[in-house]
Amino acid sequence: MKIAMVGSGYVGLVSGACFADFGHDVVCIDKDESKIARLKDGVMPIYEPGLDSLVASNVNARRLSFTTDLAEAIEGAQAIFIAVGTPSRRGDGHADLTFVYEVAREVGEKLANDAVIVTKSTVPVGTGDEVERIIKDTGTAHNFAVVSNPEFLREGAAIGDFKHPDRIVIGAEDDLGRDIMREVYRPLFLNESPILFVGRRTSELIKYAANAFLATKITFINEMADLCEKVGADVQDVARGIGMDNRIGSKFLHAGPGYGGSCFPKDTLALLKTAEDYDSPTRIVEAVVKTNESRKRAMGRKVLEALGGAEAARGKKVAMLGLTFKPNTDDMRDSPAIAIAQTLGDAGVKVAAFDPEGMDIAKPLMPDVSMCEQPYEAIEGADAVAIVTEWDAFRALDLNRVKELANAPVLVDLRNIYNPDDVRAAGFEYSSVGRS
Ligand code: UGA
Description:
alpha/beta, 6-stranded parallel sheet, about 45% helix, binds uridine-5'-diphosphate-glucuronic acid
């Protein structure tokens, strides 16, 4: 089947490459000429493990190609995916649908055959109805169906998530939509991945409900972590103890500095806006958003405490290990590291940082932070080392070397990747999250 993927960003590119790998004939489209030129040269616009080789092998097999020409790309395509960005609209947190609607209009105008138009971008409830209206208004003579097919990929694990999904959600209102989508996902269906067919609005809401629920789970365990510190309990054991209950489940119960990234912060805000628009408040999600936001700066204050409090911290130096919102990505969007560095900077603390992939993007976002070539360079002369992102490279630091290089043996582990007994036995003052 020929598939057109409009938007060659994170979601479009990963989905396009994976569909091609399943044997479909995929054309990825983007307005950004330089991005398409680079993709044609095999240069990925994002860092995602395994993506470059997946793209290369499918380009070589002539199943995957890139273009800026939408009309040519959608000609003969039975499924046309819209995978463009839906950023938070400035000022009100609503998802900005400008790009989605522009693509819908252009697709309608250039449609050359019957096709299913699939929104893969994360879009608020009702967007599919509007896309359908826009395409109808172009006066196209072809039969078309508009389907919602949200993605549940995690950055850093996106290819695995795409190929072995927990479920595939399809929101379709008619047989044309359902039949074509069944064909699109047939390779996965044979792998026994469950496909859930629901109404279009339901599908749109499933995406937001899933992300809001996961954000809630994280925020819940983060609050439990704070309580653990006060009452002398261990949040890792609490997470294990509740997670073994199948009704709760063990995933997404890892306490840390708060969630970030391109999805949870944006999608929780957009869900709040939808709830407000429909006069159906979601108080839990409201609390999650506020709690997570304040947590990031609170983590900066935790580092200040390790330096002896805000007064004593002035003029000291912190080595920050990890900047991205999570490992295996170069994505800095809403990363807790930004708020933590700001809190430290406001308190007159100098910050030197190292991140395996995120430093180029981080630099303009954190102008007062000095970026280092490797972790030990950041640690040199530091009064405290703060682990902010759990990159594998930080899991086995040479603690003796850290002690030699640092000004003081102080380790603040915001991701709980060290065993407190080991680190203390190595002579460190050690603080972590939710482990008193
Ligand atoms: C998230 C969802 O997990 C995906 O299913 C979804 O498709 C995606 O958003 C999206 O909507 O596009 P992602 O943002 O890539 O994926 O990252 P996650 O692995 O979910 O992590 C999000 C944040 O939560 C990170 O800052 C991470 O450090 C934090 N987190 C995660 C925790 O603090 N504790 C946990 O136990 C899990």
